[in-house]
Design brief:
Blueprint lengths: L4 H5 L7 H20 L1 E2 L6 E2 L1 H29 L11 H4 L4 H19 L6 H27 L5
Antiparallel strand pairs: 1-2
């Protein structure tokens, strides 16, 4: 059952496929823009992306969230300037790679939580957001430690 905000606005039907495609592309555009709003930090810049990832996850649901995350990674892997500082497969495999892959997991899991009604109360949203942050930072920190060494991560 799909109970997320996006599915309330555009219920699943054949005519809503275009709207869903628009939402996915709009989500990747929002992710790309939020990557450019950053606080300089090394080796991984701090950006507004985690907020946008959490927002997409809790509002899009698991399918649209997952599709948005995967399209975002594909855009970056193909060389589009959607990441904070770079593009291409080399950037995706660099220090920020774990966070980027964590984005996809967080969006999908938060969408599942929203489908189960966690987005209906403030406390549910808060707990879902914390879970989303853990799903972003856990693979991010592990990947970062593997790339730059645990003493620098």
């Amino acid at each position: 059952m799909q109970n997320t905000l996006v599915h309330e606005i555009w219920p699943a039907s054949r005519s809503s496929r275009m709207a869903q495609a628009f939402m996915i592309v709009a989500g990747t555009a929002l992710l790309a823009l939020s990557a450019k709003v950053q606080v300089p930090f090394w080796p991984v810049p701090m950006t507004m992306q985690t907020f946008v990832v959490l927002l997409i996850g809790i509002t899009y649901g698991p399918r649209l969230g997952l599709a948005t995350g995967l399209l975002y990674l594909l855009e970056g892997a193909l060389g589009l300037p959607v990441f904070a500082k770079g593009a291409g497969l080399a950037y995706l495999m660099g220090p920020t790679g774990g966070y980027l892959f964590g984005f996809v997991v967080a969006m999908a899991v938060m969408g599942l939580l929203a489908d189960r009604g966690w987005d209906k109360t403030r406390s549910g949203v808060l707990v879902a957001m914390v879970i989303g942050e853990v799903l972003i930072f856990l693979p991010g920190v592990v990947w970062l430690a593997a790339v730059v060494g645990s003493e620098k991560a």
